[in-house]
Amino acid sequence: MPTSLNSTTCLLCGTKLVKNGRHPSGTQRWRCTSCGTSQTRKRPDLTQREHLRAFVSWLTGKRSQPEIDGTQTGRSFRRRTAKCWTMRPHLPPCNTIHHAVMVDGIWIGSWCLLIALSDTGHVLAWQWCSGETTAAWSALLTKVPPPAVLVSDGGTGLPSALRQAWPHTWHQRCLFHLQMNVTRHLTRNPRTKAGRALRALIQHLSDVRDEDQAIQWQVLLNQWWQEYGYLTRERTLLRNGYFGFTHDRLRKAWLLVHNVVRKDLIFTYVRYGNPRTTSPLEGGVNAQLREMLRRHRGMSEEHRRRAAEWFLTVREIGIDEALATATTAIEKPRPEPREEPEGPALYDTGLDSGEGLWMRAGWAGRG
């Protein structure tokens, strides 16, 4: 009779089974009291779950496939867990309002992964995108309740998304990224006195702790402008015949600092006590994510994306809850090849004598 492999009745006579010891693997063995056949109950759901658990443990851990499988090549492990690449985890929706949220993007192949991290170190949400655009940042911010302060590295598209999604949230520019961007323009050893003074002033931002020090720093910045500001407006004739700024790098560094101070994005941490850098996100989550991808180098781009999702989910809610949230990823069907119409092609890549590509021979054209 057609019965399930997990049925408690005999597959031959339909009699109810009774327990009959255990299999050497530890599985419960069942025996039919009528015909005497013995069998074990199959649990494909448990088998799939354990395969997925071993897959996630390998993906987020440091053990290799042969070490987990106990073989020389790990081929059996890859065969058992091949379907696990189609399983996609999901973080539960974030409903808690946090004091500060740090956001940053990390590139994985041709995809950019935007991550939101709370000031307590919890991953709140992530968003895949093709670049740090306003639409991508808006999609990420709408997944998280508006906090008091947002800390970022000044990525493009974020200010517009912040005004749309979280209009009442204060913005803190990461001081470390600000210092690095200024150093990129001025280098570590500026040639001019004005460049050395401006870079030293930016490096002293790390020493500002209270409002008095913040006011004193802004006074020093204003003094720098009064002494060296004219250099940012000087022009000279370039080799191409056009006039350009004489101290272009100094001008770019000054405009970068001036815009951050003018928009009040630099000393938000003094008033509200929020983190002043995105180091907990970049030095913590992003660094660990890069290390995980480095251990499993050689994966395809799609597998790297799935590995990043499993890593963030397991880090936040643990492997047991992550397995419960896994669903099968929906794959887009491949487009079917277009059928070629019957008959001669009107436009094609072949050559034809009617196009005048060859030299004519014979009596054609003679009068």
Automatic annotation (TrEMBL):
Q: Which UniProt keywords apply?
A: DNA recombination, DNA-binding, Transposition
What Pfam families does the entry give? Transposase_mut
Keyword Disulfide bond in the entry? The reply is no
Enumerate the residue ranges of region (Disordered).
330-352
The family database entries (InterPro entries) matched by this protein are listed as: IS1249_transpos, Transposase_mutator
Q: Which family does it belong to?
A: Belongs to the transposase mutator family.
Protein name according to UniProt: IS1249 family transposase
